[in-house]
Amino acid sequence: MSSIRPWRDIDRRKSRQIMVGKVPVGGDAPITVQTMTNTPTEDVGATLDQIRRCEDAGADIIRVSCPTEESTANFDQITRGANVPIVADIHFHYKRALEAADKGAACLRINPGNIGSSERVAEVVRAAKANGCAIRIGVNAGSLERDLLEKYGEPCPEALVESALDHIKLLQDHDFHEFKVAVKASDVFLAVAAYMQLAETVDCPLHLGITEAGGLIGGTVKSAIGMGNLLWYGIGDTIRVSLSAEPEQEVRVGFEILKSLGLRTRGVRVVSCPSCARQGFDVIRTVTALEERLSHIKTPLSLSVLGCVVNGPGEARETDIGITGGGAGKHMVYLSGVTDHHVESADMLDHIVNLVEKKAAEIEDSMIDAGHADGAAAQAAE
Q1: Is 273 a known ligand-binding residue?
Q2: Can you give the residue ranges of the IspG TIM-barrel domain (predicted)?
């Protein structure tokens, strides 16, 4: 309900914009959320099924690994079947990049310095230009070039930035500028320092990530700390949360990070208490059930679920829909921050779901009406 206050405003770093398929990255475009499939790319059906789940979770861009000739043989079926741009993940085999570009990849994840001669880099650039592909340079602390490790002794921010600049120069020497860059590390401090240094040096879009972050809980925490710091500072044009979890979970966590900073709005933002002995209903299980049952809602709105009246009314005033626990199995429901009615414990879960779905439909209808009104006003002005 409440708008972003001035003290919450984030002044985003000014980067130039590139296109990844039809999705703008950088400039004033929304920060995009990415993930990566983990199915064998050769299995087109399984890969597309996973892509669909990620799309449903809100993924803006999806990366698919292309390590072998077999993985690119039917790559065009994947790019045609997806509804979002597909990034082909390439490491050392430059021919995979040529094949993927010809088969519809919107972007190539490749480090030009890793694929051999200048002639090979030129071939990849020609393929990218001919097919309208962007390129993502992906520097990783775990795979830094040997000469940089010898020079610096260990992975450090300066080494990651120097590697990125070396790869950038190879593309610029071939008059290619449609690129974004990542300087990832598993160490939060190393990654944040590298990104901050790079942001002062280049104007291209930056792809954020804390690589090999860990499982769902640990990896979410590390990613939120690392990327959250950078995003709060205004750095970052596209993100991927790297978790040892299903890729659609990466997407959901990515959106939660952006939503918590007011940088994206998608789906239901749940405000809930940790629960205590004062709770009038089982807050933990209620929130878990609501998150599951409301995962299909894409319309941005807010829901507060508080177990008692200590903080409940104050939080409910700030959300579209709210509920606070009461005595004798009766709980107060708030609509648009105002007390409205009571609901019994037995009916509470279904009731909240119905209220949220109804509110989402109302918001969607108002957005459509506003769009029609804007169109009519524009026609009248003509």
Answers
A1: yes
A2: 15-254
Residue 66 counted as an annotated binding residue:
no
**DSSP state string for 77-141:** HHHHH-SS-EEEE-SS-HHHHHHHHHTT-SEEE--GGGS-SHHHHHHHHHHHHHHT-EEEEEEEG
Q: What is the CATH number of the domain that holds 333?
A: 3.30.413.10
| Residue range 192-208, pLDDT digits in tens | 999 999 999 999 999 99
Its pTM surpasses 0.85:
yes
Q: Domain check: are 154 and 58 in the same one?
A: yes
Mean pLDDT value of segment 3-10: 66
Q: What is the mean pLDDT of residues 225-252?
A: 97
Q: Is 107 annotated as a binding residue?
A: no
Q: What is the C-alpha separation between 35 and 351, in angstroms, rounded?
A: 34
Quote the domain boundaries for residue 256.
Answer: 10-260
Q: Which H helix or E strand runs over 330?
A: strand 330-335
pLDDT tier at 114, thresholds 50, 70, 90: confident
Task: Check whether 116 has a pLDDT greater than 90.
Answer: no
Q: Rounded to an integer, what distance in angstroms lies between the CA atom of residue 170 and that of residue 13? A: 24
The per-residue DSSP string of 174-195 comes to TT---EEEEEEBSSHHHHHHHH
Q: What is the CATH classification number for the domain harbouring 192?
A: 3.20.20.20
How far is it, in rounded angstroms, from Cα 251 to Cα 57? 6
> Using a CB cutoff of 8 Å and minimum separation of 24, what contacts does 42-46 make?
42/68, 42/70, 42/71, 42/73, 42/74, 44/74, 44/77, 44/78, 44/81
Average per-residue pLDDT for the chain? 93
Which residue is associated with the tokens 């959320």? 33
Tell whether residue 315 is among the known ligand binding residues: yes
Out of 197, 232, 260, pick the residue that ends a domain.
Answer: 260
Question: In this predicted structure, what is the pLDDT of residue 361?
Answer: 95
Of 167-181, 244-258, 363-377, least confident by mean pLDDT is 363-377
The pLDDT score that the predictor gives to residue 368 is: 83
204 and 234, same domain (yes or no): yes
